[in-house]
Amino acid sequence: MHLQFAELPVFDQDRAVAFYAEHLGCAVRADTPMGDDGWRGVELVIPGADTALHFIRREGDAPSTGPVLVLVTDDVEGTVQALRDRGVPILAEPAEPPFQPGHTAAAFQDSEGNQMMLVSR
Question: Which of the chain's termini has less CB crowding within 10 Å, N or C?
Answer without folding.
Answer: N
